[in-house]
Amino acid sequence: VDFLVDCKGFTNEQIFDHVFPVFVYAQAPCLLILGMFSERCGYKLGLLLGAVCSLTTVTLTLLAQTLLLQQLSQACTTINFAEACVAGLGSSPVAQVTVALAFSSDTLITALGLHAMPPAQSQLASHATK
Fold first, then answer.
1. What is the pLDDT of residues 21-40, one digit of tens each?
2. Is residue 60 within 8 Å of residue 72, measured between CB atoms?
């Protein structure tokens, strides 16, 4: 947060209302989609996608000056996170769905904190729920 505020010139409200929610609300769909993608196309390709998204996240965070590109950075973070979760599950579809639901329920707690708290208190609420 400090980097985006101090170095990039974003406000706390922009970060908490428009950037972080992209990561939070995209986790459940990404886990489901990437689980199916990895099962169909192979885990190596899924891991490669995760690595590309990780590199894209760092590049966008450091170089992007617009809110839209910072949101894209969060989307890439979500894809990388989801692929890392899926890659460790093996080939059992039941295990993939179970872990996806568990991660999604954890995400809902953070989403509730972001939605229910004023922007100035969102970071504290997010850390308190972890």
1. 888 888 888 888 887 887 78
2. yes
